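ugh ok so i messed up the first submission bc i forgot one of the chains. this is the corrected input, ALL of the components this time, i swear. 506 residues overall. if the numbers dont match what u have on ur side tell me asap before i send this to the collaborators (the ones from the other lab, u know who)
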Amino acid sequence: MIELLVDNRDLYLTGFRNTILLFVLAGIGALVVGALLAAMRVSPVPVLRLVGSGYVNIFRNTPLTLVFFFFAFAYPRLDLLDVPFFTRAVLALVVYTAAFVCEVVRSGINTVEVGQAEASRALGLTFVQTLTAIVVPQAIRSVVPPLTSVLNALLKNTTVAAGFAVAEAGQITPTLSERGASVLIGMVWIAIGFLILVIPLTATQRTLEKRWSVAR
Amino acid sequence: MTSILYDLPGPRARVRNRILGVLATVGIVALAGFITYRFWVTGQFEGRKWEWLLYKDMQLQLADALGATIRAFMVGALLALAFGFLSAVARLSEHAWLRAPAYAVVELFRAIPLVVMIFFLFYAAPQAGLQLGVFWSLVVGLTLYNGSVLAEVFRAGVQSVPRGQREAAFALGLRKNQVMRSVLLPQAVRAMLPSIVSQLVVLLKDTALGFLITYQELLFEARYLGSLAEFGRPIIPTALVVGAVYVSLCIALSLLASYLEGRNRRHRFSERALPVPDAPNRAWATTSPS
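and heres the new structure output, hopefully the right one now
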């Protein structure tokens, strides 16, 4: 079993390196876009709220495979900027995951009691002060644990990119069978690789949930 | 309406909000306009690219593909519910020899990406002498992954039933499995119904992964129709049509989930039973991607 891993270490290294790269890039992108969407959904401007909730409801109800399908096959037909498929895979993951990040952030903000903000306004704090000193520190407690589970799902979702021919961990199999190695053992190693990546994330989530759960 | 972030707007804030609203509308219309313009320039609105929708053959094929998606969903959902139910009961068992393997199975299948699981069943399992075929590779993968997630949902549900219920049932002289069957589970399932339906939405979305192993469902059909030269390779129109089908199916299920949640919230008991570690504030769809 070990020989297969050693013989094909080039495959596994590029595969998992690309998985982690996809995860990190798409994670950062999704956090930024998701936070912007959440800001839109809690803003006092009705149009922004409408667009934010429309986006979230459409993308949470679209299969990720379909988003990838669009970026893989439909995007080139639109004669837009010609970007490599890896970038488009990152975009697909960002577009999809941002909807989930938005919901987590929004419901986190909503868990802070209105009285908190009212009290801080009564004390004369400005909007920015209210946000940074009162709302965000409390919201972050209820945002971070579910956010890690969203990121966990993102990590697993990067494998969809493999189905669309990004040289990612999920893509190791076809190459293995070309080289005549055992696909069965090869896939067991891929599964183990993902367990190694996923388990620390899950553990972080559980710890944070336990430590940060507060009685309100 | 006071919100956590801002007070009732006064006259100046109202003006500012209105200006922001206008700017936002302009920006969004510009973006939508740009996309439509690109579609127009590249000829996506040409009649020829939409003509396939008028042919009876194509309509039948599309209906077949929809049937295949729904079949995978139905079988997968039933099996996942059964698998989740059994694993949850095993995880709640008093016997360590049942609890430990159930724990390992649930954690394992939750951690392995579904794509890897499906590829494993489709490409690797035959080497071990297990020929599943396209349909069952997809369905078994969906069952194992979503069943494991559902097991956690059921378990959280049973644990959220107030302790007094269990104690009272034992005090009445009910046996262990009677307590589980007729006292804990009915209440747990009612409290968990929204989360269960949300997970089924995830399962429905994940049937699209069948595309990757050439299961002939909606996306596969979109790819096929989109490659037909006689209609000018209408991949964008087919993707839009199939996408609309997926989104409406999932939104219908999500609406069911939020309806159930609303109904739960109106009953006083369930309100206390609702909080679950993994299920924060679902609006009307799934909380975690896949």
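quick check: Chain A touches chain B through 79 residues (CB under 8 Å). that seems consistent at least. The radius of gyration of chain A is 21 Å.
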